[in-house]
Protein backbone atom coordinates (compact mmCIF):
# COMPACT_ATOMS: atom_id res chain seq x y z
CA UNK A 1 0.00 0.00 0.00
CA UNK A 2 1.06 3.61 -0.49
CA UNK A 3 1.45 5.35 2.83
CA UNK A 4 2.18 8.92 3.87
CA UNK A 5 3.41 9.76 7.35
CA UNK A 6 2.76 13.39 8.07
CA UNK A 7 5.18 14.31 10.84
CA UNK A 8 8.36 12.31 11.25
CA UNK A 9 9.29 12.68 14.89
CA UNK A 10 9.60 9.70 17.23
CA UNK A 11 6.23 8.23 16.33
CA UNK A 12 6.12 9.08 12.62
CA UNK A 13 9.66 8.06 11.73
CA UNK A 14 9.65 4.73 13.56
CA UNK A 15 6.23 3.89 12.14
CA UNK A 16 7.35 4.90 8.64
CA UNK A 17 10.54 2.81 8.87
CA UNK A 18 8.65 -0.27 10.11
CA UNK A 19 5.88 0.03 7.50
CA UNK A 20 8.48 0.38 4.73
CA UNK A 21 10.33 -2.69 6.01
CA UNK A 22 7.17 -4.84 5.93
CA UNK A 23 6.64 -3.96 2.28
CA UNK A 24 4.68 -0.72 1.96
CA UNK A 25 5.71 2.30 -0.10
CA UNK A 26 6.10 5.00 2.49
CA UNK A 27 6.79 8.70 2.25
CA UNK A 28 7.69 10.70 5.35
CA UNK A 29 6.54 14.32 5.17
CA UNK A 30 7.70 17.05 7.50
CA UNK A 31 7.67 20.83 7.48
CA UNK A 32 11.27 20.91 8.75
CA UNK A 33 13.55 20.96 5.66
CA UNK A 34 16.68 20.31 7.76
CA UNK A 35 15.16 17.08 9.07
CA UNK A 36 14.18 15.98 5.58
CA UNK A 37 17.68 16.70 4.22
CA UNK A 38 19.24 14.75 7.08
CA UNK A 39 16.99 11.77 6.41
CA UNK A 40 17.64 11.94 2.68
CA UNK A 41 21.36 11.74 3.44
CA UNK A 42 20.66 8.52 5.38
CA UNK A 43 20.97 9.92 8.90
CA UNK A 44 18.32 9.62 11.63
CA UNK A 45 17.56 12.85 13.53
CA UNK A 46 16.82 10.78 16.67
CA UNK A 47 18.56 7.93 18.46
CA UNK A 48 16.58 4.71 18.49
CA UNK A 49 17.84 1.15 18.76
CA UNK A 50 18.07 -0.34 15.26
CA UNK A 51 16.87 2.78 13.42
CA UNK A 52 20.12 3.70 11.65
CA UNK A 53 20.45 0.20 10.18
CA UNK A 54 16.81 0.08 9.16
CA UNK A 55 16.99 3.46 7.41
CA UNK A 56 20.09 2.37 5.47
CA UNK A 57 18.17 -0.57 4.06
CA UNK A 58 14.87 1.25 3.55
CA UNK A 59 14.44 1.22 -0.23
CA UNK A 60 10.66 1.79 0.10
CA UNK A 61 11.02 4.90 2.25
CA UNK A 62 11.20 8.42 0.78
CA UNK A 63 10.99 11.89 2.31
CA UNK A 64 9.63 15.24 1.24
CA UNK A 65 8.45 18.57 2.59
CA UNK A 66 5.77 18.83 -0.10
CA UNK A 67 2.77 16.55 0.30
CA UNK A 68 0.84 17.99 -2.66
CA UNK A 69 2.76 15.94 -5.26
CA UNK A 70 2.09 12.61 -3.60
CA UNK A 71 -1.11 12.85 -1.56
CA UNK A 72 -3.44 11.74 -4.33
CA UNK A 73 -1.57 8.47 -4.81
CA UNK A 74 -1.77 7.53 -1.12
CA UNK A 75 -3.97 4.76 0.30
CA UNK A 76 -3.32 5.68 3.92
CA UNK A 77 -2.30 9.07 5.34
CA UNK A 78 -1.09 9.12 8.95
CA UNK A 79 -1.08 12.28 11.03
CA UNK A 80 1.73 11.74 13.52
CA UNK A 81 2.63 15.23 14.69
CA UNK A 82 3.24 16.34 18.28
CA UNK A 83 0.54 17.43 20.73
CA UNK A 84 2.60 19.11 23.47
CA UNK A 85 1.01 20.67 26.57
CA UNK A 86 -0.28 24.24 26.56
CA UNK A 87 0.47 26.23 29.74
CA UNK A 88 -3.07 25.37 31.02
CA UNK A 89 -2.47 21.62 30.54
CA UNK A 90 -4.68 21.20 27.48
CA UNK A 91 -3.10 19.46 24.50
CA UNK A 92 -1.81 21.92 21.91
CA UNK A 93 -3.58 20.95 18.70
CA UNK A 94 -1.85 23.53 16.53
CA UNK A 95 0.21 20.92 14.63
CA UNK A 96 -2.65 18.43 14.24
CA UNK A 97 -4.87 21.21 12.89
CA UNK A 98 -2.15 22.35 10.50
CA UNK A 99 -1.66 18.77 9.25
CA UNK A 100 -5.43 18.39 8.77
CA UNK A 101 -5.52 21.66 6.85
CA UNK A 102 -2.66 20.52 4.61
CA UNK A 103 -4.59 17.34 3.80
CA UNK A 104 -7.91 19.15 3.32
CA UNK A 105 -6.41 21.65 0.89
CA UNK A 106 -4.41 19.19 -1.22
CA UNK A 107 -6.35 15.92 -1.40
CA UNK A 108 -8.68 15.24 -4.35
CA UNK A 109 -9.55 11.56 -3.87
CA UNK A 110 -9.90 9.32 -6.91
CA UNK A 111 -9.72 6.07 -4.94
CA UNK A 112 -10.40 5.05 -1.31
CA UNK A 113 -8.02 6.73 1.08
CA UNK A 114 -7.95 6.42 4.87
CA UNK A 115 -6.82 9.34 6.98
CA UNK A 116 -5.54 8.17 10.33
CA UNK A 117 -4.74 10.17 13.44
CA UNK A 118 -1.85 8.56 15.33
CA UNK A 119 -1.06 11.63 17.41
CA UNK A 120 -2.44 11.52 20.97
CA UNK A 121 -5.47 13.82 20.81
CA UNK A 122 -8.22 14.68 23.29
CA UNK A 123 -11.53 12.91 23.03
CA UNK A 124 -13.63 14.03 20.10
CA UNK A 125 -10.78 15.47 18.05
CA UNK A 126 -10.74 12.60 15.53
CA UNK A 127 -14.41 13.23 14.79
CA UNK A 128 -13.89 17.00 14.61
CA UNK A 129 -10.96 16.67 12.19
CA UNK A 130 -12.97 14.25 10.06
CA UNK A 131 -15.87 16.71 9.82
CA UNK A 132 -13.52 19.55 8.93
CA UNK A 133 -11.62 17.66 6.21
CA UNK A 134 -14.84 16.30 4.68
CA UNK A 135 -16.41 19.77 4.58
CA UNK A 136 -13.33 21.34 3.01
CA UNK A 137 -12.89 18.66 0.36
CA UNK A 138 -16.60 18.82 -0.49
CA UNK A 139 -16.30 22.58 -0.87
CA UNK A 140 -13.42 22.03 -3.32
CA UNK A 141 -15.62 19.64 -5.34
CA UNK A 142 -13.90 16.43 -4.20
CA UNK A 143 -15.58 13.02 -3.87
CA UNK A 144 -15.85 12.67 -0.09
CA UNK A 145 -17.33 9.16 -0.35
CA UNK A 146 -13.77 8.01 -1.03
CA UNK A 147 -12.49 9.52 2.23
CA UNK A 148 -12.30 7.27 5.27
CA UNK A 149 -11.13 8.03 8.78
CA UNK A 150 -9.74 6.18 11.78
CA UNK A 151 -8.02 6.76 15.08
CA UNK A 152 -4.99 4.50 15.54
CA UNK A 153 -3.12 5.43 18.72
CA UNK A 154 0.50 4.39 19.13
CA UNK A 155 1.96 2.74 22.20
CA UNK A 156 5.66 2.82 21.36
CA UNK A 157 8.22 3.70 24.00
CA UNK A 158 11.24 5.82 23.19
CA UNK A 159 14.41 3.75 23.22
CA UNK A 160 12.61 0.62 22.00
CA UNK A 161 10.23 2.30 19.60
CA UNK A 162 11.02 0.00 16.68
CA UNK A 163 10.69 -3.14 18.76
CA UNK A 164 7.31 -1.87 20.02
CA UNK A 165 6.26 -1.11 16.43
CA UNK A 166 7.30 -4.45 14.93
CA UNK A 167 6.12 -6.56 17.87
CA UNK A 168 3.20 -4.67 19.42
CA UNK A 169 0.98 -6.10 22.16
CA UNK A 170 -2.03 -4.65 20.42
CA UNK A 171 -3.16 -2.57 17.48
CA UNK A 172 -6.18 -0.41 18.18
CA UNK A 173 -8.24 0.82 15.24
CA UNK A 174 -10.95 3.28 16.19
CA UNK A 175 -13.47 3.65 13.38
CA UNK A 176 -17.10 2.96 12.49
CA UNK A 177 -16.10 2.89 8.82
CA UNK A 178 -15.69 -0.66 7.46
CA UNK A 179 -13.51 0.46 4.55
CA UNK A 180 -11.09 2.24 6.90
CA UNK A 181 -10.98 -0.80 9.18
CA UNK A 182 -10.31 -3.15 6.26
CA UNK A 183 -7.58 -0.93 4.82
CA UNK A 184 -5.77 -0.64 8.15
CA UNK A 185 -6.14 -4.37 8.86
CA UNK A 186 -4.52 -5.04 5.50
CA UNK A 187 -1.78 -2.48 6.17
CA UNK A 188 -0.95 -4.10 9.51
CA UNK A 189 -1.51 -7.74 8.43
CA UNK A 190 2.23 -8.57 8.37
CA UNK A 191 2.53 -7.29 11.96
CA UNK A 192 -0.64 -9.05 13.12
CA UNK A 193 0.47 -12.42 11.80
CA UNK A 194 4.21 -11.66 12.19
CA UNK A 195 4.84 -12.80 8.61
CA UNK A 196 7.55 -10.21 7.79
CA UNK A 197 11.30 -10.94 7.67
CA UNK A 198 12.73 -10.09 11.09
CA UNK A 199 15.01 -7.04 10.66
CA UNK A 200 18.51 -7.97 11.97
CA UNK A 201 18.73 -4.69 13.90
CA UNK A 202 15.35 -5.20 15.63
CA UNK A 203 15.22 -8.80 16.88
CA UNK A 204 11.95 -10.21 18.18
CA UNK A 205 11.67 -10.23 21.99
CA UNK A 206 11.63 -13.72 23.53
CA UNK A 207 8.22 -15.23 24.43
CA UNK A 208 6.25 -12.38 22.98
CA UNK A 209 2.48 -12.86 22.98
CA UNK A 210 0.51 -12.72 19.72
CA UNK A 211 -0.41 -9.18 18.66
CA UNK A 212 -4.08 -8.48 19.33
CA UNK A 213 -6.31 -6.36 17.12
CA UNK A 214 -9.03 -4.29 18.72
CA UNK A 215 -11.68 -2.36 16.83
CA UNK A 216 -13.50 0.39 18.68
CA UNK A 217 -15.15 3.68 17.83
CA UNK A 218 -12.92 6.76 17.44
CA UNK A 219 -13.59 8.15 20.92
CA UNK A 220 -12.82 4.88 22.69
CA UNK A 221 -9.55 4.59 20.77
CA UNK A 222 -8.63 8.11 21.88
CA UNK A 223 -9.45 7.19 25.48
CA UNK A 224 -7.48 3.90 25.32
CA UNK A 225 -4.33 5.91 24.63
CA UNK A 226 -4.81 8.37 27.52
CA UNK A 227 -6.08 5.76 29.96
CA UNK A 228 -3.13 3.44 29.21
CA UNK A 229 -0.43 6.07 29.59
CA UNK A 230 -1.98 7.52 32.72
CA UNK A 231 -2.42 4.05 34.23
CA UNK A 232 1.28 3.32 33.70
CA UNK A 233 2.24 6.63 35.32
CA UNK A 234 -0.12 5.85 38.17
CA UNK A 235 1.47 2.41 38.63
CA UNK A 236 4.92 4.01 38.96
CA UNK A 237 3.61 6.64 41.39
CA UNK A 238 2.07 3.87 43.46
CA UNK A 239 5.35 1.97 43.76
CA UNK A 240 7.12 5.24 44.55
CA UNK A 241 4.65 5.91 47.36
CA UNK A 242 5.19 2.39 48.74
CA UNK A 243 8.94 2.94 48.41
CA UNK A 244 8.76 5.92 50.81
CA UNK A 245 7.04 3.77 53.42
CA UNK A 246 9.51 0.91 52.86
CA UNK A 247 12.35 3.30 53.58
CA UNK A 248 10.82 4.29 56.94
CA UNK A 249 10.15 0.69 57.97
CA UNK A 250 13.28 -1.03 56.65
CA UNK A 251 11.65 -3.04 53.84
CA UNK A 252 13.52 -3.39 50.55
CA UNK A 253 11.47 -1.81 47.73
CA UNK A 254 13.18 -3.83 45.00
CA UNK A 255 12.21 -7.08 46.75
CA UNK A 256 8.73 -5.73 47.44
CA UNK A 257 8.21 -4.84 43.75
CA UNK A 258 9.56 -8.23 42.67
CA UNK A 259 7.17 -9.99 45.01
CA UNK A 260 4.23 -7.92 43.81
CA UNK A 261 5.11 -8.43 40.14
CA UNK A 262 5.00 -12.22 40.52
CA UNK A 263 1.24 -11.91 40.75
CA UNK A 264 -0.07 -12.22 37.16
CA UNK A 265 -2.78 -9.69 37.93
CA UNK A 266 -0.18 -7.06 38.88
CA UNK A 267 2.67 -8.02 36.47
CA UNK A 268 6.29 -6.93 36.99
CA UNK A 269 6.32 -4.03 34.52
CA UNK A 270 6.37 -0.35 35.48
CA UNK A 271 7.01 -1.19 39.12
CA UNK A 272 10.49 0.30 39.23
CA UNK A 273 10.63 2.96 41.91
CA UNK A 274 13.00 5.90 41.65
CA UNK A 275 13.12 9.52 40.72
CA UNK A 276 9.70 9.34 39.08
CA UNK A 277 8.38 9.43 35.56
CA UNK A 278 9.12 12.04 32.92
CA UNK A 279 9.43 12.26 29.15
CA UNK A 280 7.28 13.75 26.48
CA UNK A 281 4.19 11.58 27.06
CA UNK A 282 3.27 10.79 30.67
CA UNK A 283 3.38 14.39 31.99
CA UNK A 284 1.47 15.83 29.03
CA UNK A 285 -1.10 13.04 28.87
CA UNK A 286 -1.88 13.16 32.59
CA UNK A 287 -2.30 16.96 32.37
CA UNK A 288 -4.52 16.63 29.30
CA UNK A 289 -6.74 13.96 30.88
CA UNK A 290 -7.18 16.08 34.01
CA UNK A 291 -8.12 19.03 31.81
CA UNK A 292 -10.61 16.93 29.87
CA UNK A 293 -12.14 15.80 33.19
CA UNK A 294 -12.23 19.44 34.32
CA UNK A 295 -14.03 20.49 31.11
CA UNK A 296 -16.77 18.00 31.94
CA UNK A 297 -16.91 18.80 35.67
CA UNK A 298 -15.48 15.37 36.48
CA UNK A 299 -12.97 15.14 39.30
CA UNK A 300 -10.23 12.50 39.08
CA UNK A 301 -8.55 12.39 42.50
CA UNK A 302 -6.50 9.25 41.79
CA UNK A 303 -4.90 10.85 38.75
CA UNK A 304 -4.22 14.08 40.64
CA UNK A 305 -2.55 12.07 43.39
CA UNK A 306 -0.36 10.25 40.86
CA UNK A 307 0.87 13.64 39.64
CA UNK A 308 1.51 14.92 43.19
CA UNK A 309 3.39 11.77 44.22
CA UNK A 310 5.60 12.17 41.16
CA UNK A 311 6.38 15.79 42.06
CA UNK A 312 7.08 14.87 45.70
CA UNK A 313 9.42 12.10 44.63
CA UNK A 314 12.08 14.62 43.65
CA UNK A 315 11.68 16.45 46.99
CA UNK A 316 12.10 13.12 48.75
CA UNK A 317 15.49 12.64 47.08
CA UNK A 318 16.48 16.21 48.02
CA UNK A 319 15.68 15.35 51.69
CA UNK A 320 17.79 12.17 51.41
CA UNK A 321 20.72 14.18 50.02
CA UNK A 322 20.31 16.78 52.79
CA UNK A 323 20.22 14.00 55.42
CA UNK A 324 23.69 12.91 54.35
CA UNK A 325 25.42 16.08 53.12
CA UNK A 326 23.71 18.38 55.68
CA UNK A 327 24.61 21.64 53.92
CA UNK A 328 23.92 21.43 50.19
CA UNK A 329 24.87 25.04 49.44
CA UNK A 330 28.27 25.26 47.75
CA UNK A 331 28.51 21.48 47.25
CA UNK A 332 29.32 20.00 43.85
CA UNK A 333 26.91 17.27 42.86
CA UNK A 334 27.69 15.05 39.89
CA UNK A 335 24.68 13.63 38.08
CA UNK A 336 25.21 10.35 36.24
CA UNK A 337 22.40 10.44 33.69
CA UNK A 338 20.30 13.26 32.26
CA UNK A 339 17.92 11.70 29.72
CA UNK A 340 14.40 10.98 31.01
CA UNK A 341 15.08 7.25 30.71
CA UNK A 342 17.91 5.08 29.34
CA UNK A 343 18.49 4.19 25.66
CA UNK A 344 17.29 7.51 24.33
CA UNK A 345 18.89 10.88 23.69
CA UNK A 346 15.66 12.67 24.65
CA UNK A 347 16.34 15.12 27.47
CA UNK A 348 12.89 16.77 27.61
CA UNK A 349 10.95 16.66 30.90
CA UNK A 350 13.64 14.65 32.60
CA UNK A 351 13.22 14.00 36.35
CA UNK A 352 17.03 14.35 36.57
CA UNK A 353 16.75 17.96 35.43
CA UNK A 354 13.95 18.69 37.93
CA UNK A 355 16.05 17.30 40.77
CA UNK A 356 19.13 19.22 39.61
CA UNK A 357 17.14 22.47 39.58
CA UNK A 358 15.92 21.86 43.13
CA UNK A 359 19.52 21.34 44.29
CA UNK A 360 20.70 24.41 42.41
CA UNK A 361 17.95 26.42 44.14
CA UNK A 362 19.54 25.30 47.41
CA UNK A 363 22.92 26.60 46.26
CA UNK A 364 24.54 23.43 44.89
CA UNK A 365 26.62 23.23 41.72
CA UNK A 366 25.47 20.51 39.34
CA UNK A 367 27.53 18.78 36.68
CA UNK A 368 25.91 16.27 34.34
CA UNK A 369 27.32 13.28 32.56
CA UNK A 370 25.18 11.24 30.17
CA UNK A 371 26.29 8.56 27.69
CA UNK A 372 24.26 9.96 24.77
CA UNK A 373 22.17 12.91 25.95
CA UNK A 374 24.79 15.63 26.26
CA UNK A 375 24.59 16.97 22.71
CA UNK A 376 20.86 17.58 23.06
CA UNK A 377 21.21 18.78 26.65
CA UNK A 378 23.75 21.45 25.73
CA UNK A 379 21.17 22.91 23.31
CA UNK A 380 17.99 22.44 25.36
CA UNK A 381 19.53 23.57 28.66
CA UNK A 382 21.94 26.17 27.28
CA UNK A 383 20.44 28.81 29.60
CA UNK A 384 20.37 26.65 32.73
CA UNK A 385 23.03 26.70 35.42
CA UNK A 386 24.30 23.20 34.59
CA UNK A 387 27.82 22.13 33.70
CA UNK A 388 28.48 19.13 31.52
CA UNK A 389 31.30 16.58 31.64
CA UNK A 390 32.26 14.19 28.86
CA UNK A 391 33.17 11.30 31.15
CA UNK A 392 31.85 10.05 34.50
CA UNK A 393 35.29 10.51 36.04
CA UNK A 394 35.45 14.14 34.90
CA UNK A 395 32.01 14.75 36.41
CA UNK A 396 33.01 13.09 39.68
CA UNK A 397 36.31 14.96 40.05
CA UNK A 398 36.04 17.17 43.14
CA UNK A 399 32.36 16.23 43.65
CA UNK A 400 30.78 15.98 47.09
CA UNK A 401 28.20 13.48 45.91
CA UNK A 402 27.07 11.48 42.90
CA UNK A 403 23.42 11.05 41.97
CA UNK A 404 22.59 8.16 39.64
CA UNK A 405 19.65 9.81 37.91
CA UNK A 406 19.06 7.67 34.80
CA UNK A 407 19.14 3.91 34.63
CA UNK A 408 21.92 3.61 32.02
CA UNK A 409 23.62 0.20 32.10
CA UNK A 410 26.97 1.98 31.55
CA UNK A 411 26.92 3.21 35.16
CA UNK A 412 26.78 -0.29 36.63
CA UNK A 413 30.23 -1.23 35.35
CA UNK A 414 32.34 1.85 36.15
CA UNK A 415 35.49 1.68 38.28
CA UNK A 416 33.95 3.16 41.44
CA UNK A 417 37.20 2.79 43.44
CA UNK A 418 38.83 5.18 40.97
CA UNK A 419 35.76 7.45 41.02
CA UNK A 420 35.86 7.60 44.82
CA UNK A 421 39.54 8.56 44.66
CA UNK A 422 38.80 11.72 42.62
CA UNK A 423 35.79 12.82 44.70
CA UNK A 424 35.82 15.29 47.54
CA UNK A 425 33.47 13.21 49.70
CA UNK A 426 32.20 9.73 48.69
CA UNK A 427 28.41 10.06 48.86
CA UNK A 428 26.38 8.19 46.29
CA UNK A 429 22.60 8.44 45.82
CA UNK A 430 21.25 5.75 43.56
CA UNK A 431 17.78 6.88 42.50
CA UNK A 432 17.46 4.11 39.92
CA UNK A 433 18.72 1.07 41.85
CA UNK A 434 21.43 0.25 39.30
CA UNK A 435 24.43 -0.30 41.57
CA UNK A 436 25.52 -3.02 43.97
CA UNK A 437 25.11 -1.48 47.42
CA UNK A 438 27.40 -3.92 49.24
CA UNK A 439 30.24 -3.52 46.71
CA UNK A 440 30.08 0.27 46.94
CA UNK A 441 29.97 0.31 50.73
CA UNK A 442 32.96 -2.06 50.74
CA UNK A 443 35.06 0.45 48.85
CA UNK A 444 34.05 3.22 51.24
CA UNK A 445 31.07 4.94 49.66
CA UNK A 446 28.19 6.20 51.77
CA UNK A 447 25.65 4.61 49.46
CA UNK A 448 21.96 5.46 49.63
CA UNK A 449 19.38 3.54 47.59
CA UNK A 450 16.78 6.27 47.02
C1 LIG B 1 5.35 6.05 27.22
C2 LIG B 1 4.49 4.78 27.09
O1 LIG B 1 5.14 3.67 27.76
C3 LIG B 1 4.23 4.45 25.64
O2 LIG B 1 3.37 3.33 25.54
C4 LIG B 1 3.59 5.66 24.96
O3 LIG B 1 3.34 5.43 23.61
C5 LIG B 1 4.48 6.90 25.13
O4 LIG B 1 4.72 7.12 26.53
P1 LIG B 1 7.94 6.64 27.00
O5 LIG B 1 7.57 7.98 27.53
O6 LIG B 1 8.81 6.55 25.80
O7 LIG B 1 6.63 5.77 26.66
O8 LIG B 1 8.72 5.88 28.18
P2 LIG B 1 8.39 4.80 29.30
O9 LIG B 1 9.28 3.64 29.10
O10 LIG B 1 6.96 4.52 29.41
O11 LIG B 1 8.89 5.59 30.62
C6 LIG B 1 8.26 6.79 31.04
C7 LIG B 1 8.89 7.29 32.32
O12 LIG B 1 8.60 6.41 33.41
C8 LIG B 1 10.42 7.38 32.27
O13 LIG B 1 10.83 8.57 32.92
C9 LIG B 1 10.89 6.15 33.03
O14 LIG B 1 12.17 6.31 33.62
C10 LIG B 1 9.80 6.04 34.09
N1 LIG B 1 9.63 4.68 34.61
C11 LIG B 1 9.25 3.67 33.78
C12 LIG B 1 9.81 4.44 35.98
O15 LIG B 1 10.15 5.34 36.75
N2 LIG B 1 9.61 3.17 36.45
C13 LIG B 1 9.22 2.13 35.66
O16 LIG B 1 9.04 1.02 36.17
C14 LIG B 1 9.04 2.38 34.27
Question: How would you explain this protein's 3D organization?
Answer:
By secondary structure, the protein is an alpha/beta fold. The protein folds into 2 domains: 2-216, NAD(P)-binding Rossmann-like Domain (Rossmann fold), CATH 3.40.50.720; 220-450, Rossmann fold, CATH 3.40.50.720. The chain has helices at residues 10-21, 33-40, 51-56, 94-106, 125-139, 161-166, 178-192, 218-249, 253-261, 282-295, 301-325, 351-361, 374-380, 392-396, 416-422, 437-442, and strands at residues 2-6, 25-29, 61-64, 76-79, 113-117, 147-151, 170-174, 212-216, 332-336, 365-369, 386-388, 401-404, 427-430, 446-449. Helix 8 (218-249) packs across helix 10. The model has no long low-confidence stretch (mean pLDDT 96). The structure holds uridine-5'-diphosphate-xylopyranose. Uridine-5'-diphosphate-xylopyranose binds next to helix 8.
Amino acid sequence: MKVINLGIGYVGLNTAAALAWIGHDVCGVDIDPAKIEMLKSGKAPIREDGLDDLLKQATHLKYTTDISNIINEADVVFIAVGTPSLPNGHANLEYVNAAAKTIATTIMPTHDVTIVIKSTVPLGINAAIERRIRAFVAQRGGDVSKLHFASNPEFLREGCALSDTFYPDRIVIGTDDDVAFKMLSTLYAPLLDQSFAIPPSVPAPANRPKTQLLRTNQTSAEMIKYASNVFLALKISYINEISGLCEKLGANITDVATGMGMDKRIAPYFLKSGLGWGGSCFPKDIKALLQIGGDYGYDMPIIKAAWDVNENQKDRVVRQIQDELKIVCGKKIAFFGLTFKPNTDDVRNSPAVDLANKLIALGADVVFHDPVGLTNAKKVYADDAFSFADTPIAAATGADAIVIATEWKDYATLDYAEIKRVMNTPFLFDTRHVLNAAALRNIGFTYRDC
